[in-house]
Amino acid sequence: MALRVLLIGAGGVFGSRIAAALAYDPRFALTLAGRHPASLQQLRERLGDPSIGVATLDVASPALPAAMALAQPQLVIHAAGPFQRQDYRVAEACLACGSDYVDLADGRDFVAGIGCLGARAKTAGRLLVSGASTLPALSSAVVDALLPRFAVLESIEHAISPGNRTPRGDATVAAILGYCGRPVRLWRDARWQHGHGWMSTRRQRFAFGGRWVGLCDVPDLELFPARYRGVRQVVFRAGLELRRLHFGTLAAAWLVRLGLLGDLARHAPRLRRLSERFIDAGSDVGGMVVELRGRDPQGEALHLRWSLDAGAGDGPQIPATPAVVLARKLADGALPARGAMPCMGLFTLDEALSALTGFAIETGVEELTA
Q1: Which CATH number is 135-315+357-368's, of 3.30.360.10, 1.10.730.10, 3.40.50.360, 3.40.309.10?
Q2: Which of 49, 133, 273, 341 has its Cβ near the most Cβ atoms within 10 Å?
Q3: 148-177 tens-digit pLDDT
Q4: Cα–Cα distance for residue pair 237/354, rounded to 1 Å
Q5: Was domain 3-132+319-347 assigned CATH 3.40.120.10?
Q6: 104, 162, 146: which is closest to 308 by C-alpha?
Q7: What is the pLDDT of residue 370?
């Protein structure tokens, strides 16, 4: 029997890519869900799979539990961000209708807090997974893969920079703007300290060259110090390819920090449209780096850099892939975990990279002079 999958936010940048990955796969009976039925119908027509269903569904509506129960899903994939201001109503509705749940959340508190549903999920025999995206799902898979080379892991610093021509949605822009200029709790020197969103800007080396990146508030900052015991520093940064957009965002962050601007996130649609005036500048090349520092089994300093290079506008495929990997594993009966948890340790780096086969994505590891 095909696994009945309800994909919420299917019309978005990431949701549409998840839909394309699950379409025509006999393991799935896919239903596209969202607030705008016309765009969902258009997506269904583009995919060309007549077996795909369409459902109008609003995660903010009081009718959400009834609408989800009507769809009778066995797996709900929640891709309708931003998650920073959401609660767990979708996951709770999954428990009510007997469905597993996977989301693409990148909100620090949202992902780290999913365990509050753990006891109920285990009692119901269900799996609730938060953060099935680049962070913390792929980032933790990278650290897990490289960890055996270290006797002592002391520092994790990672960064992401999308190509300027890469499609961007309002939810992603709102998530970034939501922490610009605001305090960010950081694990540095083996103790909690504070930085500020989009600040601590520096030049980061990627496989394709250098770009500016600034501090971001993401789940990894909360989760990694506990997952990787003994690590003394965890820092994540992100940046925009065009200097005018990166430093324009930094200027707005300073205005927030100084109390001259309030909630930047509510301006996300307008600022996203403004950024698209420069869509022909820059490139469609983006990437990710994960740098680990520590000691090898001989006690020598060890510095490893894992790099991912995404071309041809395929960058958005990366945050979309962890949910696809989990869906396939659930359909194959290869994911026995039950409970509620952040998306760490549920798949390997090799499994993630295998799901990215066919896209313009390359990865590599280099050992640097410590």
Answers
A1: 3.30.360.10
A2: 133
A3: 999 999 999 999 999 888 776 777 777 788
A4: 26
A5: no
A6: 162
A7: 54
